[in-house]
Amino acid sequence: MSGLLPPLPPELAELVARARAVREHAYAPYSRFLVGAALRAGSGEVFVGCNVENASYGATICAERSAILAMVAAGQRSITGIAVFTDADTLAMPCGMCRQVISEFQRDARLVVVNPREQRVLGFDEIFPEPFVLER
Ligand code: THU
After folding, report:
1. Of 16, 34, 127, 135, whose CA is between 20 and 30 Å from 117?
2. What is the reported pLDDT for 3?
3. Whether the model pTM is above 0.85
4. Handedness of CA 3, 6, 9, 12 (dihedral sign)
């Protein structure tokens, strides 16, 4: 990655490095748009995910949700930070479905969206301020 990007706090820099590495495992033969995601759980552990496409396009799973499945399967249920790495010309933000799924587990999480030329750090609540919550 470019050394020109401003330095991040170490815990976010680690997420970016892990998201960048796991992106290499993305299975995206249809879109050729490879995405890597890494998140830090409340335990401090890092979980990673990549997008996994399917010949039945709608069965595709995004990188962010893939990382969340790994976190929940490991027994963790809170997200303190998440990084998303692509090689797109513009920064790729999490899609609407991923935002809703992230919102289920995050409280005041930091979000870093990165490509090799650009990075943006923001609070997750800034991009998804009013999630659907099931309250009867
Ligand atoms: N994708 C992600 O992995 N995360 C997102 O937030 C948006 C899109 C993937 C899904 C698909 O494999 C490819 O990017 C193109 O949409």
Report:
1. 127
2. 57
3. yes
4. negative
Could you tell me if 29 and 17 are in contact, meaning their C-beta atoms sit under 8 angstroms apart?
Answer: no
**Does the beta carbon of 22 lie inside 6 Å of ligand 1?**
no
Question: For each successive 10 residues of the chain (136 residues), what is the average pLDDT?
Answer: 77 98 98 98 98 98 98 98 97 97 98 97 98 95
Structure tokens at 23: 């992106």
64 lines ligand 1 (CB under 6 A): yes
Verify whether ligand 1 is closer than 6 Å to residue 61 (CB atom).
no
pLDDT of residue 2: 47
Distance CA 132, CA 130 (A): 7
Question: What separation in Å is there between the alpha carbon of 135 and the centre of ligand 1?
Answer: 29
Scored b (16 or more CB within 10 A) or e, 25-59 reads ebebeeeeebbbbbbbbeeeebbbbbbbbeeeeee
Cα 95 to Cα 10, 35, 99, 126, 128: the distances in Å are: 26, 12, 6, 14, 11
- Cα–Cα distance, 73 to 84 (Å, whole number): 20
Q: Write out the catalytic residue numbers.
A: 64
